[in-house]
Amino acid sequence: MSSHDQVAAILGTEILKGIHRPGANMPPEPELIQRFQVSRTVLREVMKTLAAKGFVVSKTRIGTRVRDPVHWNFFDADVLAWRVRIGLDDDFLQCLTEVRRALEPAAAALAARRRTAADIAKLRALISQMGRSGHSRQSFAEVDLDFHVGVGAASGNPLIRSMASVIEAALVASFAYSSPVDDAADHEVTANSHAAIVDAIEARDPQAAAQAMLKVIDIGVRRIESTRRKKGCKR
C-alpha cells in the first residue's frame, strides 16, 4: 500500500470514528505532514481523495473541514472497507441488508433475462467450488463474492456490476460473525440455495431468480442473528 493510500485510510477511518467531527477543521497541514512523514504533495492528494469521497471540503482561508455524514459516499469501496474495519453494529448490518435486498434480487431477475451460456458456465463452476469441503472462512467468502459479482455481471447492467463493493462489505460483515463452513449442514444448505439461483437464471425465470436470491440473503441474516444471540451480543 502506498503512503497516499495508508494516510487516506487512517484519516478516513478517523473521520468515520468521529475523531475528526463534522463541521470541524482537519488538523493543520504541517501537523499532518509531521505525523505521517509525507510530503506536502502527498498530503494534498490525500485530501483530494477524501474530498472525492465526500468526507471533507477545502476552502481558502478556512482550511479543510469535515463534511456532514450525509455527504459521505458509502458506495465507495474504500469507505465501505474502512467502515467494516471499525466494527459492526446492528444499524450498519441492517443498512447493508436493505441495500442487498433492494438490488440483488433485481440483478438476478435481469440475469435470468439476459444471461449467456458463458454466464451459466461460470456460475455453475462457482457453485461447484462453493460445495467443496475443506473451505476456510476466507476461501468460502471469496467464492461467495465471486458468485454474487457473477450474477451482477450476468445482469448486463453496468451500474449493478459496480455495486460489488456493497456486496463485499456485507459478506465481510457476515462472515466476521459466522460462516456456512462452520457447520456442515449449513454449508450444504448455503451451496444448494445458491444453486437454486443459477437454476432459475438458466431457466430464464426472473421471478424465481429474484426469490431465490432473497432466500440466500435471508439465510445469511438468520445465521448472523442466531450467532449473535448465542454470543449474547446486544442490539
Description:
The protein has 235 residues and is mainly alpha-helical. The chain is built from 11 helices and 2 strands. It has helices at 3-17, 29-36, 40-52, 77-86, 90-114, 117-131, 137-154, 158-161, 164-177, 184-202, 206-231, and strands at residues 56-59, 63-66. It has a two-stranded antiparallel sheet. The protein is elongated, with a radius of gyration of 21 Å. The chain starts with a helix and ends with a helix. The model has no long low-confidence stretch (mean pLDDT 91).
Topology overview:
Blueprint: H1 3-17, H2 29-36, H3 40-52, E1 56-59, E2 63-66, H4 77-86, H5 90-114, H6 117-131, H7 137-154, H8 158-161, H9 164-177, H10 184-202, H11 206-231
Antiparallel strand pairs: 1-2
What attributes characterize this protein structure?
235 residues, mainly alpha, Arc Repressor Mutant, subunit A, Four Helix Bundle (Hemerythrin (Met), subunit A), two-stranded antiparallel ribbon, elongated
Short description:
This protein is mostly helical and 235 residues long. The chain is 71% helix and 3% strand.
Query: What is the approximate shape?
Result: elongated
Main β sheet profile: 2 strands, antiparallel
The residue ranges in which pLDDT falls below 50 over 5 or more consecutive positions are none
**What's the architecture of the largest domain, going by CATH?**
Up-down Bundle
